[in-house]
């Protein structure tokens, strides 16, 4: 079985499937060392479109909608029809409203905006936070919406859908909405920069998220792995931001659950028995290149031995505010896990500064 794993960044599922014995090709925008040292063929998304008939199965992430529309083989995950329905953003918010699922105040016209409220402009077709920026006035770009910026933390929940039923797999805190974290990781704007998967959550919250996931699944006929992003204030009521009906960056943290490989569950279309996370918190942080950019040192492959991922090849030039690599940590508590991630980030930036000074 020839598996095509396609998307903006698909290192995690491609490596997991390859290590499990699958014959994998990755259509990936970065083509990092993780893929190359395994001998995984790396092609562009355009090449994947041209060569799509060569593959039996497609597992996709973000920016692969055109490939999903035209892929002739088996699609692991949601269908092209589901993606099209979810792309109708007005219908999406109308459905949430009718279903009683909360979301932040949202507008499609600047004329409707209230006074003295902080507003974010969002383009739902752009993934990974790249389509989010503070609203500065003017005409709303085509495909964008306006949403009230609220003082709340940002989270995501992962679930597996099958035949109208769902299994909630985990809830993560999203990094990057804390100024200290963003500055440490050199994150541009609201770009995605990682998650912390926590084992222990309030049972009422888990029940509410499961109910939301089930409601979305039955309306949109979701299958396989999906993610929802939401914010939550002191009242602990989740306000939905968006659904990610495709492979998400947070899914690889679920691999820390004993015996569970989410990429295999997605390919096979069925969920094995899932147990609890064996530690209190597991996290990943995406490091971005600082304003000076990064000339990747000759020993960058050693980063893989240090447990890093998405590692660039020696000699590459990483432009300012572009992804550099990913670090991981686990601990008994959320705070200890976050601290470990930031320490690893600081250490790498220090090493890069020393190399640059030499």
Q: What topology does this entry show?
A:
Layout: E1 2-7, H1 11-19, E2 23-28, H2 33-36, E3 42-43, H3 45-50, E4 57-60, H4 65-70, E5 74-76, H5 80-86, H6 89-99, E6 106-107, E7 119-122, E8 132-134, E9 145-148, E10 153-162, E11 165-174, H7 179-185, E12 194-198, H8 203-220, E13 224-232, E14 239-244, H9 262-268, E15 281-288, E16 294-295, H10 302-305, E17 317-318, E18 323-331, H11 334-357
Parallel strand pairs: 1-2, 1-4, 2-3, 4-5
Antiparallel strand pairs: 6-9, 7-8, 7-9, 10-11, 10-13, 11-12, 12-15, 13-14, 15-18, 16-17
CATH topology of the largest domain: D-amino Acid Aminotransferase, Chain A, domain 1
Across the major sheet, the strand order is: 14-13-10-11-12-15-18
Q: Give helix % range.
A: 25-40%
Shape: globular
Distance between the termini: 48 Å
- How many β-strand runs? 18
Throw out a few tags for this protein.
358 residues; alpha+beta; Rossmann fold; D-amino Acid Aminotransferase, Chain A, domain 1; 3 domains; 7-stranded antiparallel β-sheet; 5-stranded parallel β-sheet; 11 helices; globular
Folded structure, characterized:
The protein has 358 residues and is of the alpha+beta class. The chain has three domains: 75 residues, Rossmann fold; 44 residues, no CATH class; 205 residues, ATP-grasp fold, B domain (D-amino Acid Aminotransferase, Chain A, domain 1, 2-Layer Sandwich), CATH 3.30.470. The chain is built from eleven helices and 18 strands. The strands form four sheets. The chain has a seven-stranded antiparallel sheet with strand order 14-13-10-11-12-15-18. β13 and β14 form a beta hairpin.
